[in-house]
Amino acid sequence: MQLNYFIIPLLTILTAVTGSVITSRGMSWYKTIIRPGFTPPGSIIGAIWTIIFILSASSLLIVWNSAYVSTAINMTSGQIITAVNSAERNVVVLVFIFNAILNVLWSWLFFSQQRMLIAFYEALVLDLTVVVLIILIWPASIIAAMLLLPYAIWGAFASFLTYRIWRLNLS
Fold it and tell me: To the nearest 5 percent, what fractions of the chain are helix, strand and coil?
């Protein structure tokens, strides 16, 4: 078994659990603020994030294991040569790591620091990393890129929700 089948899910779980712990510590404050009527219940938000983390880990596993592989035929010997473009793959992995850091940072800014406007701007950067990932991954694996589309959609909604919460709680 390849080590990445253990490490990628483990890091994904670590990201999810860290964000969840930070979020749960801020729930008493969150319950006191004004939220728009379209705010989903916590159980729905948790379920959506679980799906997003599973899809994201799956996308990264696809990228790590099969993307950016090029095949050529040696014209002299007729042998098939396979090579992995590790530079492109490494860029994608770094953007995934940056995305995970931003994901946890949003929870800390919003729930721990209660800095709603800064959390909104940070959420926009988080959204941008998802779009960048989709663009970077698309040429190598359309499936891996499409697995991130729910994240992009949810991220846009969550950013809008963060903005609306900030606006409703201006004092």
Answer: 75, 5, 20
